[in-house]
Amino acid sequence: MLGQDQFSKSSSSYLCGMKLKNDLLLRAARGEQVERTPVWMMRQAGRILAEYRAVRAQAGSFIKLATNPELAAEVTLQPVDLLGVDAAIIFSDILVVPEAMGLPYEMEENRGPVFPNIVQTHRDIEKLRVADAQTDLAYVLDAIKIVKRDLNGRVPLIGFAGAPFTIFCYMTEGRGSKTFSVAKKALYTDPVFSHKLLQKITDSTIGYLKAQVVAGADLLQLFDSWAGVLSPQQYREFSLPYIKQICDSISEVPLTVFAKGAFFARHDIGALNCAVVGLDWNMDARESRVLIPNKTLQGNLDPCVLYADYAQIRTEVKNMTHAFGTQRYIANLGHGVYPDTNPDKVRCFIEAVKEFSAV
Ligand code: 1CP
Question: Which of 39, 153, 208, 217 could be bridged to 212 by S-S, CB 3.0 to 4.6 A?
Fold first, then answer.
């Protein structure tokens, strides 16, 4: 098995026979020397730009936009053109995987995703299928191919999926929650059920991520957005083993593991077969370097810093880039950018990273 440290030459940028003009992100992910820190932003594609809202209005709904490869590709490219980020991330959602397994979701205006049916019994799990990415998720793969064509090698393209535990949360709870107490109840009351569902999600996710690489994704990120609701013991039992299976299955491109709130699991995540570890703003840069000595770190500006004035944003970015150092580092926020952020403040963040991190 090839590890994340020895990427095979079948990586998509080789397959396409195209060398990237800006490969800072990939070099930083692989631990190679960079002349400045690459920067991109979680949730950069779908929240803050008026240009995004115009395309979404044209599509009519989030789901219509996400399932239309031409329009999904268009909004994926917007932050590259309008914000100057060093990577694109495919416009989609983590919830396309449960849908591909047979559990459709709806997007309620101003409320977020809702699953009309939830998974409650062993019989419910048996009714689900392991997603077949080539058919069930062809619309995402088609969007990736269009983005790769239109990027024409300008910057790398990031593919993504939710980590199995985070997907489990939505499939059992049916909607977003502060506590995910319904999902956690299942962990405590029926661990056999929980492991069975987590394994089915994992099998679906591995196939989906591999298909994204074949379609053209240059790097992959796993979002364990709700990791922080678990205790360290539960995280070790119900999340890490499944993330580990995914890491061990992906050797083609670098993989980032972002487990929001799992400050307690940094050492364990650092031992996984992944190239990059994403950090949120509760995780100190220098302490994280000690806990995760041999990997590239990504993060971790508090998205609320972007509500501050320009001078303060620059000071915070300067402190952050200084704390992480210039190598083995990808600048980002500590979670997705908030929808009411002024795009000019985002540009200030991106330009400040470029200015302060130049070697
Ligand atoms: O924003 C982008 O860059 C576009 C791509 C993208 C990504 C990477 C979307 C589009 N969603 C995601 C990931 C995602 N989706 C995560 C992981 C990242 C994170 O922690 O923020 C999660 C947890 C979701 C689930 C989800 N989808 C939520 C959160 C619900 C909750 O539990 O609070 C919401 C509100 C959505 C809807 C959604 N996804 C994406 C967009 C643009 C939207 C808004 C829908 C709309 O336009 O009405």
Answer: 217
Catalytic residue among 43, 53, 154, 347: 43
Q: Is residue 56 annotated as a catalytic residue, yes or no? A: yes
Task: Give yes or no for a contact between 280 and 335, defined as CB atoms under 8 angstroms apart.
Answer: yes
Number of domains in the chain: 1
Instruction: List C-alpha distances in Å: 276 to 70, 231, 285, 359.
Output: 30, 23, 14, 21
pLDDT digits (tens, 9 = 90+) for 14-31: 444 578 999 999 999 999
Reply yes or no on whether 149 is catalytic.
Answer: no
Q: Would residue 47 show up in a list of annotated catalytic residues for this protein?
A: yes
Q: What is the mean pLDDT of the chain?
A: 95
DSSP state of 336: P
Q: Give me the catalytic one of 52, 86, 136, 170.
A: 170
Q: How far apart are the CA of 359 and the centre of ligand 1, in A?
A: 34
pLDDT tens per residue across span 197-218: 999 999 999 999 999 999 999 9
Which domain covers residue 273, as residue numbers? 4-356
Is the full-model pTM beyond 0.70? yes
Which CATH number goes with the domain that contains 68? Answer: 3.20.20.210
Alpha-carbon gap, residue 166 to 41, rounded angstroms = 20
